[in-house]
Amino acid sequence: MVNCNLSMQIIPLIDEKNLYSVVDRIIDMIAASGVKFIVGPMETTMEGELELLLQIVKEAQDICTEAGVNRVLSVIKIDYSPGGVSIDEKIAKYKD
Questions:
Q1: 75-95 confidence digits (pLDDT tens)
Q2: Rounded to an integer, what distance in angstroms lies between the CA atom of residue 1 and that of residue 82?
Q3: Are 86 and 4 in contact (CB under 8 A)?
Q4: Domain containing 21: what range?
Q5: What is the CATH number of the domain that holds 12?
Q6: Model pTM?
Q7: For residue 10, what are the β-bridge partners?
Q8: CA-CA distance, 42 to 91, in Å (whole number)?
Q9: Which residues, other chains included, contact 64 with Cβ-Cβ below 8 Å and sequence gap of 6+?
Q10: Cα separation, 96 vs 87, whole angstroms
Q11: β pairing state of 44-48 and 36-39
Q12: Torsion, Cα of 76, 81, 85, 91 (10° steps)
C-alpha cells in the first residue's frame, strides 16, 4: 500500500540558462523510477513508499552535483500515513 506523498522543490544554484536542463534530468529520473508523480510549476509531487521517495530525493541532489552545481536548495514536504495516502484523494474534486 502506498503510504506517502512527497513534494519536492529542487533549486540548483546555477546559471539560469542551465537551470531547466538540470531540472529536466531530475524529472526524467523520477519518471524512470516508476512512481506516480505530478509536475507542478513550483514542485513535483510523488506517491509511493517513504524509503523509495527519500532515495529519489537523494538521487535528485546527486544529479545536481554531477551537473557541476556547488549548492542546491531543496524544499521537501511529506504526507505519511501507515494506512495509505494518495495524490488522487487530494485533487480528484479539482480535476476536469
A1: 999 999 999 999 999 999 998
A2: 9
A3: no
A4: 4-94
A5: 3.30.70.930
A6: 0.92
A7: 74
A8: 17
A9: 10, 12, 14, 22, 26, 72
A10: 15
A11: antiparallel
A12: -60
